[in-house]
Design goal:
By secondary structure, this protein is an all-alpha fold. The protein has one domain. Helix content is about 35%, strand content about 0%. The chain is built from three helices and no strands. The radius of gyration is 14 Å and the shape is flat.
């Protein structure tokens, strides 16, 4: 079994989701220094490790893994 880490906000948003680093980057909530670190680290990780969804295509299936929120991009209408 593989282990994947998820960096996320400490406080849930109004939909009850903890925004991950991708959401923070996309919404421009990272400082320039944090964004540069994230981008460099993400590029390195992409080159060093396989995409989890290509290893296990069922990983993001909410029916099979209802508690798994790793990188899931589903949003409620309030948080879209």
């Amino acid at each position: 079994m593989s282990l994947y880490l998820r960096y996320e906000s400490a406080v849930a948003n109004s939909c009850g989701n903890h925004t991950g680093v991708f959401g923070l980057a996309k919404s421009h909530r990272l400082s320039p220094r944090d964004r540069a670190w994230w981008r460099e680290s993400n590029d390195w990780l992409n080159a060093a490790y396989p995409d989890p969804a290509t290893v296990d295509p069922t990983l993001f299936d909410r029916t099979l893994n209802p508690l798994d929120h790793l990188l899931v991009q589903g949003r409620c209408k309030r948080c879209a």
